[in-house]
Amino acid sequence: MLIIFKSDAYADITMFSDVAHRLLRMMGHSGTVPGAILAEDVPAVLDRLKRAIEQEKQRAPETGDEPQAKEPDDQTVSLTHRALPLIELLTAAAKKQSNVMWEKV
Q1: Contact predicate 13/91, CB 8 Å
Q2: CA–CA separation, 59 and 15 (whole Å)
Q3: What residues are paired with 66 via a beta bridge?
Q4: Are 95 and 39 a contacting pair, CB within 8 Å?
């Protein structure tokens, strides 16, 4: 299943549901779909997500949560990189004071 994040301030972002649910929980949301964040709450949610991603980066080498490339052909994408489009969407929404919504595709 796919989840699409929408805001008037940025292009739509589509993610696999497992990644999207994990990021939603990192933002402090329950992970329910569909859902929304009001414009006035976006800056706090963005900050919470950035802090959670930073903690994930620091914790990953210790726990092995973020797989390390074992071979040159390994195309594993870290959660940190998968979060970048959502962080950009939230940043644009915060600047434009726009709501953010998500739903199943």
Answers
A1: no
A2: 23
A3: none
A4: no
Residue positions counted in the chain: 105
- The 10s digit of each residue's pLDDT in 73-85 is 567 888 899 999 9
| 12 occurs within a structural domain | yes
Contacts of 43 (CB under 8 A, 6+ apart): 94
Angle, in degrees to the nearest 10, between helices 42-63 and 17-26: 110
The answer to whether residue 27 is domain-embedded is yes
Whether 12 contacts 6, CB under 8 Å: yes
Domain that holds residue 14: 2-64+78-104
* Neighbouring C-alpha atoms within 13 Å toward the C-beta of 27: 24
Q: How many domains does the chain have?
A: 1
- pTM listed for this prediction: 0.84
| DSSP tag of 14 | E
